[in-house]
Backbone:
């Protein structure tokens, strides 16, 4: 890859993009559709973590919740309130899907922060299907709920008549660009943050700057914990906004 | 030569993400300015804040995408 530079004079090796390679577990070999790769491992671990947090802690429900149960209840209440605030009462029907999206993305992001881990959400191959399923689902839902009136979303009646065709074109383009920005935002920020940590780690090989490198890694790691949550939150909130547009196309 | 030109183009495209950062900062600063004038209304508007940031950021993402395409796809 073009980004893997090596500065000969100082003996520094930068391989910030190597962590994103999809490789079979336990050695090299061709990656077929059935090969169990690191991507498959960490995706399943994310699903397992969601299961552990949400299912196992709430099977023995207590009136005074245990620590893990409070975390699960907090996550549930947080997403429930978000869906209710943005989509209204009608949107509650789609709450399970949005909750699933949020929990999977947030767990995949957080597990990716473990050193030597693989981050599934840093790959377009993961985020594009997530965003496309939201896009297709919301579009189909809009037509099912509103019929042809859903197209009224592109015809801004509050604008002067002469401007409306131009606005319709802009609205149409921005509608179809949604899945692109939706998916690239998540994958891009995950990839960029992890690559920055690796670049700082490359500097740690040089004794003079190594204290600063370690400080830099620590600071970036703290920022990444924040970014991991915020990106999952933004993905979910945008899903809610798109869902609201489908349920109430007249703004 | 063509590959090197693509790398220069990728660098220029990366400038767009910095310009989008100005937009994101603008959204956040306006929000903070409004929130400090009327703190009681701030909590109900955090969702709007994040939506605004996401839309401002989307345009920076497109330049990031162009940079990625120039690096790896051209």
Residues:
């Amino acid at each position: 890859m073009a980004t893997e530079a090596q500065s000969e004079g100082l003996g520094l090796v930068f391989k910030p993009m190597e962590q994103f390679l999809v490789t079979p577990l336990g050695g090299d070999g061709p990656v077929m559709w059935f090969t169990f790769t690191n991507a498959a491992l960490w995706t399943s671990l994310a699903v397992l973590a969601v299961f552990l947090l949400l299912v196992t802690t709430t099977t023995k429900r207590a009136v005074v919740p245990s620590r893990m149960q409070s975390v699960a209840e907090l996550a549930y209440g947080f997403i429930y309130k978000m869906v209710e605030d943005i989509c209204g009462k009608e949107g509650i029907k789609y709450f399970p899907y949005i909750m699933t999206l949020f929990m999977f993305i947030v767990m995949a992001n957080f597990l990716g922060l473990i050193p030597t881990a693989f981050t599934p959400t840093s790959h377009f191959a993961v985020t594009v299907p997530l965003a496309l399923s939201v896009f297709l689902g919301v579009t189909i839902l809009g037509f099912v709920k509103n019929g042809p009136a859903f197209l009224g979303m592109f015809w801004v009646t509050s604008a002067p008549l002469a401007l409306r065709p131009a606005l319709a074109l802009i609205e149409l383009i921005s509608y179809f660009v949604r899945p692109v920005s939706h998916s690239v935002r998540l994958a891009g920020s995950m990839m960029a943050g992890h690559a920055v940590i690796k670049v700082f780690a490359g500097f740690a090989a040089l004794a003079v700057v190594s204290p600063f490198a370690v400080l830099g890694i620590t600071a970036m790691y703290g920022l990444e914990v924040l970014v991991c949550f915020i990106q999952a939150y933004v993905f979910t909130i945008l899903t809610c906004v798109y869902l609201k547009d489908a349920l109430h196309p007249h703004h | 030569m063509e590959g090197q030109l693509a790398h220069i183009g990728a660098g220029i495209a990366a400038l767009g993400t910095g310009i989008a950062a100005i937009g994101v900062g603008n959204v956040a600063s306006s929000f903070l300015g409004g929130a400090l004038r009327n703190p009681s209304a701030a909590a109900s508007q955090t969702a709007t804040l994040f939506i605004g940031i996401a839309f401002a950021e989307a345009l920076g993402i497109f330049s990031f995408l162009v940079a990625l395409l120039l690096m790896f796809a051209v």
Helices of chain A lie at 38-59, 67-87, 95-111, 124-146, 164-203, 210-247. The longest strand of chain A covers residues 6-7. The interface with chain B takes residues 1-3, 82, 85-86, 177, 180-181, 184-185, 188, 230, 233-234, 237-238, 241 of chain A (CB under 8 Å). The radius of gyration of chain A is 22 Å.
